[in-house]
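Might I ask for a little of your time on a matter of protein folding? What I wish to show you is a protein chain and, alongside it, a tokenised description of its three-dimensional fold. I should value your view on which stretches of the chain appear to form regular backbone elements. You will find the record immediately after this paragraph:
***
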Amino acid sequence: MAPDTEGSDIEDDEDDTKPDLRTLLSENFIKSAFEKTPHKFVPEGIIYELITEESISEALEMHAGTRGDAELVEFIRMHAKKVFAIFIYTRPTKLLAALNWWRKKDMDDRDLPISVHPGWRKQAWFAEFCEHQWKFLAPVFSTARYNHNLEEDHILPFVSKESDSGRGSFGALLDRSTFAVKEIQSSDNAQEVAEHWEREVKALRTMNELSQEHIVRFITAFRRRRGKDGQDHYLMFEWADGGNLRSMWKRVPSPTLTVALVKDAMFQILGLARALEAAHNLNNTGASYRHGDIKPENILCFNNGRTIGTLKIGDWGEAKEHGQVTEMRPSKTTAKYGTRVYEAPEVETGVRAKYLGQSTKRRSRLYDIWAMGCITFEFTIWLLQGHEGLTRFRRDLGEASFYEISVQNGKKEAQVHKAATYWMDRMGEDPRCQAGSTAIGDLLELVRTALLVVKLPRRLGTNISDHTERSRTDSVVSEARFEASARPASETPFGPGDVPDIPPAVGVPSFSITPADPEPERIPIQPEPEAKGPARCLANEFRSRMEGIIAEDPDEDEGYWLTYWVQPLELRPTSDLVLPPSPTTEVYSGEVSQKPDWEQCQDSSDGLIAPSQRRIDYAHPELDEDDWKYQSGNDVVSDLFAQLKESKSLEPSDNVDNFKDHVLDGELHQRGWVLQEHALARRTLFFTEHQTYFECGNGVRCETSTRLNK
């Protein structure tokens, strides 16, 4: 008898007060949201929950007229729950005979799925069983295995889907635990795709073994048969609910610069440095992995209640394993270059050959350090100037990388891009970004002197390779988030808590390090004179210097993390005073460096000693130079003076115009916050009991129309 459609009406002779087993199974069908398997399925946990010793006996009595013998019931309960569920759903005319056939063949759930077999075709139930068995065989992705092989008819247990166009993977949710599913895009070269998938699985397994908080956790991998000879390949990870670093910068376009935010940024960059060091050195095993494609899109954000979240390095698809010192490796790299913007200059210039016949197209782990320098620099721009600043910087940079190439004496020479150099110089003038006195300043100094550096150290680093690898030719396709069955299962692959530890994989070659082949005799090349200046650092120095930045604040000095206060004029010695701008003052980047001729100003701090400050940022650096200048023809100011002159309540007086007594020595002006606002403001109105004063960079105007020069 052909089965009813899912959720069909029950037969007239079924118990009206208690649904039978077939009805319960039908009510629990869930449609897969995976576009390649848009069919309904029953989660494994539901099958195990519904099929009990009692329900088996009741179903046998209803469909076969007998409760069955104890041996058959025990066989079903222990070994053939899925087989029994399929038979209950398809309702063969001779249920007992079909079940006994399976038992006599010594077949059970472990033999599912069954396929066409010449000797089994004569069984009346066989065709319908083969057709509907997939509804009860949705795979359970277990972290005990790294490789799951699926047939084309397997229905994947993803029950909802959310698109996320910002990242190149799929997403899924199972038992309320979110995880991402990435599909390796197929190509004409099926062997190459399979090799890439296995290579990436191997890299991901190795990253898991490092137990680094700031590396995305790999869950498992599976491949699904497609057609007669094809296969689709997938990888599963913990889901990054905060998107990636690029999307975070866009999501928070104008960050409020606080001590907490600066500290959080420093700790997250330190975490990335530690993760990179672990991958580059593989816990001091002598082996290393180079990521090869570090960029903001591959640094994922995991929400932790703070603005930035926890940052983790993901997408190790370009990662390459090395087992030979880069400076001694004879051949060029076989890995595909990463994203153009963040690629290192040695992609163009090559690295120096150590002996005759050695390729200059070799790449080391220093490639990753350059990329981290680019990202850390962009991170600093975002902290100080938000996403708008990032947009302006990228506009200045254009479509280029962070370096420029020139030809000197027929040889390619690289320099840090002039746009990046200009931005670093300008940011270094910001009081919040002073090297040696602020955390952001020390971070920028790290970028300038150790990360975003063209010069490579003499010893490029030890990297590991146990076999020749092909370049990556795939690209990830699209992203969505799926939700899978939230019903309990006997073997729940992902619980609601943390991702479980993953034991050694089954079905994927184990990681091993093989010694390099003996090298032929090498003829050394006379080394070129070493360029002046610092060389790019390795990951361990990157980590060490980040730890130094964080350790710079032993006494919880908030001034190191963020400089808010600019010293007022009245608290500075005369020799250190700085005038607001005037028409004769040189203005650049919103700062003034000219000493004033203001001899009347005396220190009224009564012994209060404040640090001197010769440079003050009076305005946002984007203000035009003309905006600093007081112009008598300004309409707004002219109208103000005209109104003051027309005032009949005031008469000019030699005694009333006393800005020093009324304002500078006034009681209100002795308060700290008033001094601060006075020092920061470019133009100020002072309301006193005598009259109103207007102060700007060109002097002081009184309500009596008198002009006081400083």
About this structure: The chain has a mean pLDDT of 74. Residues 366-397 form the longest helix (32 residues).
